[in-house]
Specification:
single chain, Aminopeptidase, Glucose Oxidase, domain 1, eight-stranded mixed sheet, seven-stranded mixed sheet, 16 helices, 17 strands, binds zinc ion
Length: 541
């Protein structure tokens, strides 16, 4: 009876084998990783302080990682993908007839990928937006659907739309499809929703697009309900298609039908050198790859290292890569994706991707994601290191892998970005409560010095009035966290590469890939996507 019951309740999914990773972890050292990060800092210094997509700093980073991986014996390839590069060529003009021009930068900000041109035309609105949206900031659905514009003629006019609910790109696309000559989206008011900031328009949209502050937008909206409001909107921009590259390194041998992709983004934001985001993930993966090449044992499952391009512009490189795998059918050979994006935050927390969605804050990952989370959790437990889950929301390069069309198991680690550390977390991990996990997140001060020592006092993410004390409390913390997280990363990557048992049993894998399972997941994924506020560095809705 007991035996039968035990058999009945034996889970069908096979657990991952326990793999001894001590040799590898001994080889993966913090100083080795920091050397890679310093190399990336030097390349930023030599190229205007940034390693962002399309810059020479990115190309120099690519050269560095490529050379190291080749020297280590990997088969390295540059994987090209199309990317739109955009520039605003000079100051813009936005002016209401008979009034002084609005102030660029405060009253309005030109959207990334805005088209060029001069438009002098009346404003057109749906006429149905409520100011402010009665359901609170973000709740207004103004201009999300073509039907919102029923009864209005947009042709040749400047569409003025309230922010909220759907993505900016959706509102812009709808207005353009109905003939709008330019688009203004105004912030919808409320906490943090008063000012104009740079939103992202769809690349090659071809018409001028900007965001206005809540004040300016509401005033224009109200005036347009009372009579004709003429505006002149002029901006000159250049949008070009340029080829960018992911860097892919394959180990020799291993079962190709069980390929493990270990990745992280190689690019930084425009604002800085990106040494934590994501020099730390880059350095950790590179160090891991170099040390794995030194081991006597070879991966049982095929191991592929990926350094993604243009993540900060919206996961462009990894999305293109996954789409190509889907098109060729090779996606079915990918057993798992591990993602490492930010492992050296000065005010770190040990976050593990919540693959089983135990927190309910993201999605339940594709089958195998919960098992990957367990490998991380068991490792940290054995080391006596507390961890916390972080939402499995696809806000980095594993996003395309877990999307319904690909549906690959994923997992990863994160040391924290612009979130604020709690008192409880400070008690557990050290550092300073009230400041960001990475006070230099997406800023010029995300440098090697900040990582090795502490953030400068003008870092945006230091608590007001506590800058000096908080920065001092972070002194030397980043390398400590980095060492712990990089060891766990190496442990999990090597465990998956060596495990004889698959992450998910064949029967479960088949069931998991069934149409029904994907459909169910698609609903959950869409729901989660609606909650996303950001993609890459830009707010998306
Ligand atoms: Zn990042």
């Amino acid at each position: 009876m007991t035996v039968a019951a035990a058999l009945l309740f034996t889970p069908t999914a096979s657990a991952v084998d326990r793999v001894d990773t001590s040799k590898l972890r001994k080889g993966v050292t913090t100083s080795g990783i920091l050397q890679h990060m310093r190399a990336l800092q030097r390349r930023a210094n030599a190229n205007g302080g940034t390693r962002a997509a399309t810059t020479p700093g990115y190309e120099a980073s690519l050269d560095y990682v490529e050379a190291r991986l080749k020297r280590a014996g990997y088969k390295v390839s540059r994987d090209p993908f199309p990317f739109a590069s955009w520039e605003q060529n000079g100051p813009a003009l936005l002016q209401r007839e008979g009034q002084a021009p609005f102030v660029e930068g405060t009253d309005y900000v030109i959207a990334q990928f805005s088209g060029s041109g001069t438009v002098t035309a009346p404003i057109v609105t749906t006429g149905t937006a409520q100011l402010p949206p009665p359901g609170g900031p973000g709740s207004g659905t103004d201009g999300c659907e073509a039907s919102d514009w029923a009864g209005q003629t947009l042709t040749g006019k400047i569409a003025l739309i309230q922010r909220g609910f759907c993505a900016f790109v959706d509102k812009i696309n709808v207005a353009k499809s109905l003939g709008a000559a330019a688009v203004l989206i105004f912030n919808d008011g409320g906490t943090d929703r008063e000012e104009a900031f740079q939103i992202g328009a769809p690349p090659f949209i071809g018409i001028p697009v900007a965001m206005t502050s809540n004040d300016v937008g509401e005033a224009l909206y109200t005036a347009a309900q009372a009579g004709t409001v003429n505006l002149t909107f002029n901006v000159t921009t250049t949008t070009e298609e340029v080829t960018q590259h992911n860097l892919i390194a394959d180990s020799k041998g291993g079962d190709k039908e069980r390929t493990i992709v270990v990745g992280g983004h190689l690019d930084s934001v425009d604002e800085g050198p990106g040494i934590n985001d994501n020099g730390s993930g880059t350095g950790s993966i590179l160090e891991m790859a170099e040390e794995i090449a030194q081991l006597k044992k070879k991966p049982r499952n095929h191991l592929r290292f990926a350094f993604w391009g243009a993540e900060e512009a919206g996961l462009i490189g990894s999305t293109e890569y996954v789409q190509n795998l889907i098109d060729s059918g090779e996606i079915d050979d990918i057993e798992a994706n591990l993602n490492f994006d930010m492992l050296a935050s000065p005010n770190f927390v040990r976050f593990v991707y919540d693959g089983d969605n135990s927190t309910g804050e993201g999605d339940v990952g594709p089958p195998g994601s919960a098992e990957i989370e367990q490998v991380f959790l068991k490792y940290f437990q054995r080391k006596g290191l507390p961890v916390e889950p972080t939402a499995f929301d696809g806000r980095s390069d594993y996003g395309p892998f877990i999307a319904p069309a690909a549906f690959v198991a994923a997992g990863g680690l994160f040391s924290g970005a612009e979130g604020v550390k709690t008192e409880e977390q400070a008690a557990t991990y050290g550092g300073a409560a009230g400041s960001w996990y990475d006070p230099c997140y997406h800023q010029a001060c995300d440098t090697f010095n900040t990582v090795v020592y502490q953030p400068p006092l003008d870092a945006q993410g230091l608590e007001e009035g506590q800058q000096a004390a908080d920065a001092a409390a972070m002194h030397g913390n980043a390398p400590k966290g980095l060492g712990q997280l990089a060891d766990a990363a190496a442990h999990t990557a090597w465990t998956l590469a060596r495990s004889k048992s698959p992450l998910v049993g064949p029967a479960d894998a088949r069931a998991a890939r069934s149409k029904k399972a994907r459909k169910k997941f698609k609903v959950a994924y869409r729901r989660a996507a609606m909650r996303h506020e950001y993609r890459g560095g830009l707010a998306i809705r």
